[in-house]
Amino acid sequence: MTKNISQPELVIEAGKTEKQYWQDIWKYRELFYFLAWRDILVRYKQTSIGIAWALIRPVLTMLVFTIVFGRLAKLPSEGVPYPILVFAAMLPWQFFANSLSECSNSLITNANLVSKVYFPRLVVPTSAVVVSFVDFMISGMILLALMIWYNFVPGWRIFTLPLFISIAFAASMGAGLWFASLNVQYRDFRYIVPFIVQFGLYISPVGFSSSVVPEQWRLIYSLNPMVGVIDGFRWAILGSESNLYLPGFILSLVIVFSLLFSGIWFFRKMERNFADVI
Questions:
Q1: How far, in Å, are 15, 61, 190, 233, 265 from residue 174 at the CA level?
Q2: Which of 168-178 are b and which e, b meaning 16 or more Cβ less than 10 Å from the residue's Cβ?
Q3: By the number of CB atoms within 10 A of the CB, which of 14, 30, 119, 263 ranks highest?
Q4: Do the beta carbons of residue 135 and residue 94 sit within 8 Å?
Q5: How big is the CA angle at 73 (ends 69 and 79), to the nearest 5 degrees?
């Protein structure tokens, strides 16, 4: 007489409670460090000029915008050199664009890891944002070099820059979580994200100051959350009052944090199915 011995079933799921889940994130912090460091090494290890790619892209974009908007269109530069005006906006925009691109593909890239072992999946897109933040810090050296070249000295508002960096981080994380979750379920989003990044570059005040937007349209224009982020950077770095339209900035701020909290909520909702779908 034979006995049927059932094999134990392996269940991969997130923490059963919110408290347990966030405790697990701290517990798996070494995995977070590993993923971030691995992505940094892979990004530059096999390139001939290495980390210089983080400098070349924003510099070329700055030059194009300076020529088109500063020299040809002759848009106002708020009393500062046009390259500094552009690059003060390029920093948060490149951070957001890179984070969105990396986050949206992060779970697919780590599919083998996601489908085999348990860990809080939030670790994966967060590490992707941190990698983009490294590029952001490297690109910051270009802005410093431009300030030295043009003998531009920022005022006391520069000390508020960490606040606006935090807002940029929140915007990048919120949008990244939405697209990371959607990309697992609907692979079409890998084609949508590059379009959003390219289109967003032109509707955001990167190559020009948002002060050129007519007053009656500025609040509607601020529905783009990156408008408030970019204006905040310029206000902190350049010190121009016209760069920070307070009602629009508050609106952008509300949208940014709504995006962040809804992104976390949606990611947590979809997370339990990642291992099956991916």
A1: 21, 25, 17, 19, 10
A2: bbbbbbbbbbb
A3: 263
A4: yes
A5: 65
Q: How far apart are CA 104 and CA 179, in angstroms?
A: 5
| H-state helical runs in the chain | 18-27, 29-45, 53-65, 82-109, 111-116, 123-149, 161-185, 189-203, 218-221, 225-238, 246-271, 274-277
Single-letter amino acid, residue 167: I
CA-based diameter of the chain, in Å? 92
102 residue type, one letter: E
In DSSP notation, 15-70 reads -SSHHHHHHHHHHTHHHHHHHHHHHHHHHHHT-SSGGGHHHHHHHHHHHHHIIIII
Q: What is the pLDDT along the chain (278 residues), one digit of tens a residue?
A: 444 544 444 444 554 556 677 777 788 888 888 888 888 777 766 665 666 777 788 888 888 998 988 888 888 887 889 999 999 999 999 999 999 998 988 888 888 888 787 788 888 999 989 888 988 988 899 899 999 999 998 888 999 999 999 999 999 999 999 999 999 888 878 888 889 999 999 899 998 988 888 888 999 999 999 999 999 999 999 886 666 888 999 999 999 999 999 999 999 888 888 777 76
Are residues 24 and 120 in contact, defined by beta-carbon separation less than 8 angstroms? yes
Phi, psi of 14 (to 5 degrees): -75, 170
